[in-house]
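Inputs:
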Amino acid sequence: MLEVKNLIVFYENALALNDLSLSVQPGEVVGVFGSNSAGKTTLLNTIAGLTWHLKHRELRKGGQRITIAGEIKFAGEEISAVKPAERVKKGIVLCRERHPVFRDNSVEENLRLGGYMRKGSEIKVMMEFVYELFPPLARLKRKKAGMLSGGEQEMVAIGMALVARPKLLLMDEPLLGLSPAMQKEVVRAVREIRKQGVTILLAEQYARPVIPVIDRGYVIENGTLVVSGTGAELLDNPEVRAAYFGIEESR
Amino acid sequence: MEGNLVNVLIYGLVNSAVLMLTSLGFSLTFGLSGVANFAHGGLYLFTGYITWMFLHYLGLPFLPAALFSIVIVGLIGTVIYRLILMPVRGIVLSEVIATFAVGVAILEFFRWRGFVTYEFNLPSFVKGSITIAGVNVDYQRLFIIAIGIGLAVFLWIFSHYTKTGLALRGMAQDEYTALSLGIESDWAAGLSMALGSALAAVAALAILPLGLISINIGYDVLLVALAVTVLGGLESTVGLMVASLLLGYAVIITGTYLSPHWMEVVYLAAIVLGLAIKPSGLFGKFKELEERV
C-alpha cells in the first residue's frame, strides 16, 4: 500500500532522513520507533506532504532550503510531488503529534472539519463511528476543544483524522504525554480502527505500549533505519530493548 | 447642553458603526490569514470611484453597479494575494510593504488621473432624514448601523456554520493541522483577502454617500482600521465591536466638547496607547509559537 524508497530529507544542511526505505502492506499496523529527533515526524510529514508544502513555501520566499529525494508510492502511484490536499483525497491522513485540535472550535466542529474533503453523508457516518469509538466525546460535543484535557484532545485529533476517511492513517506519537489509562484507550482505538480496514503507520518513542497492536516495526536513529522486524523480533534485540522499550536487561 | 448630549449619543453610535464597518474587512483578513492588508484604504476608495464610473459612464442603476463593484473588488483582493503576496508569504514586513504599496498606487493613480474635483460622490440608498429626540439623523446613517449589525451576524453564521467558514477558521488556528486534513493554505488566504476586500467595498458603498469622495479618505480609512484592530485585538470580533464603540464615542465626544481638530489624534492615540499598554489588544490573544514541521 505504501512504499517508501531511499527517502532523503535535508533541512538546509541538516540531514533529517537518510536513505530510508520502508513499506506498509494493506491492513497492517506498522510502528516506527526512535528517540527524539530521529526523524519520525519528518518521515510522517513527508509522506503526508507537509514537508513538500513547507519546501515550496520556503522556496518561494527564499527561506530555508529543504531537499526531498527518493520515492513515495501509495497504491502503486508515485506521490512525492503531490499536494497535501490531493494526498488526503487519495486516503493518506496524518494525525499530528501533541494532539493538535482547533482550540476555539467545539468538538463537533473539529470533527466536521476533519471531513473537509468528504461528502456530508460520509461525514455523518464517520462522526457516529468516532462517538462510538470514544464515548466521552459524545458528551463533550459542544465544548471548546481547547478546554479539554490532553487525553480528550488526543481523542478529538484521532477522531478528526478518522472523519477524513483514511485508507492509510499516519499517527505521530499518539501516546505522547498521556496517562497510562489514556494510553490504553488509544491503543484500544488503534485496534478498533484497524478492524475497519484502515492501514496504520504509527510513530512512537517508546514501543512497549503499542507492541501488542503492531504487526511490524522499524527502528530509526538519526534518520537511518537501524532494525526492522515483527514486534517479537524487535523485543528480542537487546539494544533495541534497552533503548526503545524501556526494559533493562535482567541481571 | 442637553441637545448636545443626545447628539453625542446618537452620532457616537453612528460613528461607531462607521468605524466597525470600515475596519471589518481589514480585521477579517488579518484574523483569518494573518495578512495585514494595507491596501484596504486603496480598495475602499477604488470602490467609490468605480461605482461612480458605473453610474455615470455606463449609466447603470445603483444596485447592479454596487454589486459589480463588490465582486470586482473581491476579485482584486484575490489577485493581490496571488500575484503580490504569495511570493512574500510569511515575511510579515514584506507583506505590509507590498500591500501598502498597492494601496498607495491605487490612491495616487486616481489623484494623477485628476479624480480630485467636487463632482465625485455616491448616492444615498434612500434620501431623507428622521428626527430622533430632537436630533436630525439621515436615513443613510441608520442604514450604516443596520448594515454593520447585519454583516456582523452574517459573518458569525458564515464562520460557525458553513464548511468554508469553518475551514478558514481552522486554517487561522493551526495551519499544518488544517493542511493535513486537506485544506489548502493559499486557497484560504486568497479567499480571506477576497472577503476582506469585498467588505471594504461594502463599507465604502455605505459610508461614502455621507460626503464627497476624496483621495485622502483612503489614507484615513487605513488609519481607522489600524486603530480599531490594534485596540480591539487582532483576531477578535467582540474586540472589534467594543473598540469601535470606544473609539466611535471618544471621537465624537472629542469633536463636540474639545474641537474637531483633535478627532484624528484620537485614532493615533488609540494606536499608541493600545500598543504600549496592551499590545495584544483588549480582547486579543497571543498566538502560540508556531511549531516547525
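Strands of chain A lie at 2-11, 14-24, 29-33, 66-74, 77-78, 92-95, 168-172, 199-204, 216-221, 224-230. Flag for discussion at group meeting.
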